[in-house]
Amino acid sequence: MPVAVDLNQVIFDVLSPLLGKFTAQKAVEIACQRIKKTPAELTIADLPEVLAGLRPMLRTLLGEHLAARVLEDIERRGGGAA
Predict the structure, then answer these.
(1) Tens digit of pLDDT for each residue in 2-60?
(2) How many CB atoms lie within 10 A of CB 34?
(3) pTM to 2 decimals?
(4) How far apart are CA 15 and CA 45, in angstroms?
(5) Neighbours of 76 (CB within 10 A)
(6) How close are the terminal C-alpha atoms of the chain, in Å?
(7) What's the DSSP call for residue 69?
(8) What is the DSSP letter of 78?
(9) In the 8-state DSSP scheme, what is residue 45?
(10) Three-class SS state of 2
């Protein structure tokens, strides 16, 4: 049986060391607004849309290469082998 993943927490945990806690939380909230969900409502099925929403912000803040690595890390931790 697969272990449930708190996608909001995964994204926050990956982003907060890079962006700071406040900016990481705001990035999650903005990505969620785009898909009309709250961070608590996120599911694995939302992962592609959330990553797409985070991509422009992270490219601006971190640069293209680091943003790509961060998004891959979120996908790996949030989606597992799915």
Answers:
(1) 556 789 999 999 999 999 999 999 999 998 999 999 999 998 899 999 999 999 999 99
(2) 12
(3) 0.85
(4) 20
(5) 12
(6) 13
(7) H
(8) H
(9) G
(10) coil
